[in-house]
Amino acid sequence: MNKLINAFKENSRDIIKPTAVLLAICIIIPLALSLTNKITAKKISLLEEENSRKAMSNLIKADSFEPVSDMECYKAAKDGSVVGYIFKTSSKGYGGDVSVMTAVNPDGTVKSVAILDVSGETPGLGQNAAKESFYSQYAGKKSGISLLKNGADKDKNEVNAVTGATITSTAVNRAVNEALENFAKLPESENTAEVTDSE
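and the corresponding structure tokens:
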């Protein structure tokens, strides 16, 4: 035991100095990150909201987007009339969550779809779900959309999967179907609004 104490005394500079430096780093870096987060959190939130509004405007031409119910849903209105609803949904893909924004007409059919995030999916395969040739197939579809590897019949509420990316395509399909299911859950007064001026 005495040998250990003596060794510590002899090498105390070599032990205490690195320990103090590591301790300081462990305290200063989290504090700096916390401060940076506090400073930038509001700006990041505003930027996300602005990007979300832009994406919604690309899906439905409207004057306003008002949050509806407790799900991530927005009622789109133009000239005082409801022109549709926008739902943000996500589903597990091949490499992570696939985020989708679905615009639903007041009659319960898909107006348009935007793929918000497929960055976790395989480049050249799953990330092709973000191409218009895939997601544009959803326009006009109603709840219960089926996904086929090929040979989908648009009149039978079917869409073709992205070649070589069935898992990612399935995730997008689940997210769009979830949006349509959420539309059906809206209060009666919300989802039966009359449209007088549609796009």
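(Above: one complete record from the training split.) Residues 193-199 have pLDDT under 50 and may be disordered.
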